[in-house]
Amino acid sequence: MPRIRQSIHGEWSSRWTFILAATGSAVGLGNIWRFPYLTAENGGGAFVFIYLACVAVIGIPVLMAEIMIGRRGRQSPINTMETLAIEAGDNPHWRLLGWFGVIAGFLILSYYSVIGGWTISYVLYTASNSFENATADGVNTIFTNLVSSPGTLIAWHSVFMLLAIIVVARGVKAGLEVAVKFMMPSLFIMLLILVGYSTTTGEFAHAIDYLFTFDMDTLSARPGSIILAAMGQAFFSLSLGMGAIMVYGSYLPHDASIFKASLGIAFADTLVAVLAGLAIFPIVFAYNMEPNEGSGLIFKTLPIAFGQMPGGSFFGAMFFLLLAFAAWTSAISLIEPAVAWLVENKNLKRRYAASYIGIACWFLGLLTVFSFNSLSDFHPLEFIDQFGSLGKKNIFDLIDGLTSNIMLPLGGIFVSIFAIYVMSREATRDELDMGDSIAYKVWRVLVMIAPITVGVVFLHAIGILG
Ligand code: PHE
Question: Closest residue (by CA) to atom 10 of ligand 1?
Answer without folding.
Answer: 239
